[in-house]
Amino acid sequence: MSHQSDSLHKPCGQMKDQGLKTQKPHPPVMELILRLRQLIDEYSRQLKIKHLQEDLEQEKQRHSQDTREQEAILVQLLGEVVNLLQAGATSSLELQLPRLSLDSRGGGGQQAQLPRKPDQLSHQLSDSKAAVVSCDLSNRGIDISASYKSSFKDFIAYQGDKYHEDKNTLGCINLGLSENKLCIDLLTERLSRSDMNYIDDDLLQYPDWSGHAFLREEVARFLTYYCKAPEQLDPENVVVLSGCCAIFSALTLVLCNPGDAFLIITPFYSGFTFTSSLYVNVELIRVHLDSEITEADTQPFQLTVDKLEKALLEARLKGKKVKGLVLINPNNPLGDIYSRDSLMEYLEFAKRYNLHVIIDEIYMGTVFDESIPFHSVLSMESLPDPNRTHVIWGTSKGFGISGFRFGTLYTHNKEVVSAVGAFGFLHGISGITQHKLCRLLQDREWIDNVYLPTNRSRMQEAHRYITNRLKTLKIPFLSRGSGLYIWVNLKEYLDPCTFEEEQLLYRRFLDNKLLLAPGKAYMCKEPGWFRLTFSDKPLRLKVAMNRFSQALLEQKQYWVEKQMKCVLGE
Amino acid sequence: MSHQSDSLHKPCGQMKDQGLKTQKPHPPVMELILRLRQLIDEYSRQLKIKHLQEDLEQEKQRHSQDTREQEAILVQLLGEVVNLLQAGATSSLELQLPRLSLDSRGGGGQQAQLPRKPDQLSHQLSDSKAAVVSCDLSNRGIDISASYKSSFKDFIAYQGDKYHEDKNTLGCINLGLSENKLCIDLLTERLSRSDMNYIDDDLLQYPDWSGHAFLREEVARFLTYYCKAPEQLDPENVVVLSGCCAIFSALTLVLCNPGDAFLIITPFYSGFTFTSSLYVNVELIRVHLDSEITEADTQPFQLTVDKLEKALLEARLKGKKVKGLVLINPNNPLGDIYSRDSLMEYLEFAKRYNLHVIIDEIYMGTVFDESIPFHSVLSMESLPDPNRTHVIWGTSKGFGISGFRFGTLYTHNKEVVSAVGAFGFLHGISGITQHKLCRLLQDREWIDNVYLPTNRSRMQEAHRYITNRLKTLKIPFLSRGSGLYIWVNLKEYLDPCTFEEEQLLYRRFLDNKLLLAPGKAYMCKEPGWFRLTFSDKPLRLKVAMNRFSQALLEQKQYWVEKQMKCVLGE
């Protein structure tokens, strides 16, 4: 996975003192195979000698010294070959070849050089050496910690310095997070009613790990109604876990063997990248969309079957084992809503190539443009491949209660239901929360007459406000009718148009106490795009947009100064 | 891990028609290395030929046929060698050697034979072959689903047929699950008070992934007080996730690389086995305790440093990379409470060998024998290795609210706090539940004056009732003063004393609508032990013990009939 391979190359602070250095040339698999053969010859020779030795005790001791070190090196090299072969390296891929002396006990001989995953090897070497690179975390622990810190550093800082209209007017405003804060008043009122506070023995005890039956039944009823399913959905096809990313994590794990891959339409929700880096290690192969309009693409960032087909074939040529396709509809971060025909084309494509489809419909409750119809895959009379179509949904976006940590899976595939359900053991939701969710989804009168119309009109108003401000600033953006955010084009403010400059602009917003989400987080291949959340309260939006304008003004001043310096020859 | 390796050998239903068979002889690593050399020679020869071919398009096509298959076989073999080397195979271990023809395109030549993980290879082979073993789940998905079904089948059946004193008197009573149902009345009353139903914006939105600051602060205060910590514990050292197994899952992942191991005192809580089978794949190496009293062991199932040391050295000789030790104190399933001296010895042992210690103290609130003091590791003036001592705790047992799905980690190790905290992204608890937990832990007056004394006296009473019934039946058991269960010796009812007979007895209880937990689930090495939960309401306990007696009576009748048949020569 892109994210994973990035982190593999991350320098490890603890390695500094090792005096190891990476090798310059990148020989192909052939050289690695030859080197491996030499090593195996040498190893088998030593093994023969060792087998001749009679004293078992002595052998054991030696084993833990030189033989163990040789084994470590051999394991390392074999691992490289396995990786290489699995990545289809023979055709084109090249990698850094570690050159490791079999005699690594120091003194003369060849200097050990750094392989791709440095501390893995050092762990396998003798204790004295490992001590130099001692770290309490495993390699993956180090990667996760680094990835978490880099992904959430600013979010954590924001948590400690939130803007408040009275108490902290200089605090940070977060338009980088996709949260719906428009109807907290309605939700607070509804969740405070007495029916919510029911408690019984079952709610306090261990639940069915797939979710309490009462909630799974209500989810099935809710989705039947709001997705316009042709027939009543089956509660036995529902699994309830602590958030949609928990569902994604469990689902990809039970569908993929290590090293398997999923295609994902890019730019895409950054949470899937982070999720994949935690437990599962599934590779997300990006199907990049372009902002440019061409003959084939009638609108920016258009998804076509051609693009899917091309990405799949390229991946397969590289030897990737592609197990499926991830779709997000309505799309995050673009706000696109797929037409019924397009959706069917994507599903037909997946069926043609025996691909699973994970379709994340968490934004279905965020369609604020009533002229654009949303089509859930659950509304289809007949799915091309029902056993390989898996729907994710939750209440975080439509209902604006991300703090409930609720995500659900709907799939006709009984094997998948059972295997994902097992993960409720680790991703369970408290019984009292399950009860509240059930009551909320049950209350159609409140949803249809109070919540939905109010939420829609507030979303429209907030969207109008932000887009008007963007228009005034002459900033291009996508307007697609759904989502809690706007995909904004700030390329004009990057010079040169690089991801480094995008990051600088991101930091300039942050200096103005405004969090936005840069396109890089969504793996967008073009620098300069930002996702800007609009579903916040009017006053906060106003302050945020003032800060936004201010940051862009500063960006312009910075250019002027830079140009002045150039002209003055500084 | 034991559990894992069991499931590796599980027959895959879909494989039946393949006509593959496992090979009889078990040649050691030497033969594998030689075979590998042959394969590499052959492979590199073919690779050379291929590189000479000019037409790229043609090469690509060929690549996806014969070369790809060769690669699959090579990957398989290399994987075996890596496993073998990592398992320290050169000293003693032997394994099944797959004999695979390089020319696997059918027709003549050697017949492909089944390696250890059959369907993994088949996935790598050509599509036409894979189709025969097609399954929507990955190998690990298949294993997880099978493990879930076998582990929770009876629990799920129980969920649908729970005993109820009025509504379902013929329903199932579950004394196999460790739940505290003695004070649901008190909890329901406390959780229904108005302070519990508070809602604010922050509770409905994304939290700090390590847990809301207010809850982490309260957990630190609570543990400082009830664990008698020498100084105020730091909320920054607390991580809150959806249950103790979620903590265990994240913790072992960030401490272990794939294939690393932890020692675990056995018998042990079956949830750790299941957790390890879901995401992490850490090997749990059992340190078996014995029921027999010997010179060294003054009581049954005694843990000594000698046993730890022996298990560690044996594991290391086998080439295992042991990263730490899991302790459960008070113990599940034994009910043991470690003395301060013993605890210190175990911690010193771990420090001596650079081992992490994961200590699960979830049962600290279940000490019902007031004469036995409980010592949390958090109470120690100075821990031998504070950076490698990680405490797990939750409210499921002491407070009897397993349905809250709340688990917490306390560790001085900032790296571990950060890395485990990242998993809040997948194992978050709803904000409203976090609020309720905080209020509960905060209410010391209610805890000290109402909850704790009532809970303790009800536990004592229930424990007395069950042990009296056991005494009447002349059934031996351990009485250790903590836990929600009694470790019961039913060896007398097994003939022969095997795990098969244990399973039959388990089913006999089930036929009498009584769920108990057999020792096998705790990896106990001696058949005949059962864990029997006593923390249930008096009426249910009475009915349950009647069923228990009835099942044992039936077991005796079954023997008599069997012996009669023997005598009559049937």
Written description of the protein model:
2 copies of one chain form a homodimer. Helix content of chain A is 46%, strand content 10%. The first copy, chain A, is α/β, with parallel strands linked by helices. Among the domains of chain A are: 151-182 and 456-568, Aspartate Aminotransferase, domain 1 (Alpha-Beta Complex), CATH 3.90.1150; 198-448, 3-Layer(aba) Sandwich (Aspartate Aminotransferase, domain 2). In chain A, the strands form 3 sheets. A 7-stranded mixed beta sheet of chain A has the order 2-8-7-6-5-3-4, sandwiched between helices. A 3-stranded antiparallel beta sheet of chain A has the order 9-12-11. In chain A, strands 1-10 form a two-stranded parallel ribbon. Residues 1-28, 52-66 and 86-134 of chain A have low confidence and may be disordered. Chains A, B: Keywords: Pyridoxal phosphate.
